[in-house]
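Journal club side-thread
Mid-discussion, someone asked how the predicted structure for our own chain would compare to the paper's figures. Pasting it here so we can look after the session.
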Amino acid sequence: MRSQLAGLLLAVTMLWPGASAAADTRLVTADGAITEIVYRLGLGSLLVAVDTTSGYPEATAALPKVGYLRALPFEGVLALQPDMLITSEQAAPQKNLERLRKAGVQVEILPSAWSSEASLRRVQAVGGLLGKEAEARALVADLQARIDTLHRSAGARGYRPKVLFVLAAGNHAVMLAGKNTAAEALLDEVSADIAFADLEGYKPASREAILASQPDAIVVAESVPGQFNVDNWPELQMLDAWTSGHRLMADSMLLLGFGPRLVDAMAAVNKVLPDNQDVVAR
C-alpha cells in the first residue's frame, strides 16, 4: 500500500510541479475540500476568496464568497485580481474558466476525489501547486497512517453493514443516496454498503422506502449543521438502527468532501456501525 502511494505521489508531483507560492500570491479556491487543504498546509493567508462550499475552517467566514463552484462568475472572480484559482472538475461554467485563463489567471482544475487514495493525491497536488511539497508529503503520511488503522478496524468487523444514507438540505429537500455517489464511496472506505444499491445517484426521500430499508445503521448528512429536524421524519425514528443508537448526523462537507477530514468522517461513521453480535441480537 505505502509503495503504491509513494509512486502515486511522485506522479502527482510531476503533473503539478508548482514553484513556491510568493507571500503576496492572491489565491481563490472553489471547492471546500481544496480550501481545507490550503489551510492544513498553512497557506490560509494567501486566500482572497473562496466559494460557498468552503465553510471550514471557521476562518473562511471572513473571506469574500465568489458563489457556487458550479456557477462561478467571471467578473466576480476577476474583480478580486487573483493570481491563481484552484478548483475541481465540478467547476462550471467552462467558458468562465477559459475567460479567466485568457485574462491571466492561473486556473488549476484538480480531479474530484471519491476514495482515500484520490483524496491523498489531491493533497499532494495542492502542495505541488503552492510550493509546499514537503509539508504535503508529511500531511499525507499522517493521514495515510490513520486511514490504514481505520481500514483494519472496519475490516475486522467480519461483515459489511447496510447503511441508510440521507442527504438533507433542509426538511423539504431530503434525498436518499444510492450507488455511484460520494456517500457510497465513503461507506466503502469503512467496509459498509449503501442501503439502496439499486438506486442511482440521489433521489427524493420516500417515507415508504425509508421504512422498507431496514438498515443496520443510519447516516444523515446535513448541508447546514442542525437544520434537519428528525421529528419531521418519524419513519427514521421507527427504524431499529435509530432506536438502537446506530445513527450519525453530521455536516455533509465533512462526510462527502473527501478532503483532509476524510479520516474524521470515516472514524465517525465507523463508530456507529454495529458488529455482528449487535445485528444478531436485533
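Post-session note: The chain has 13 helices and eleven strands.
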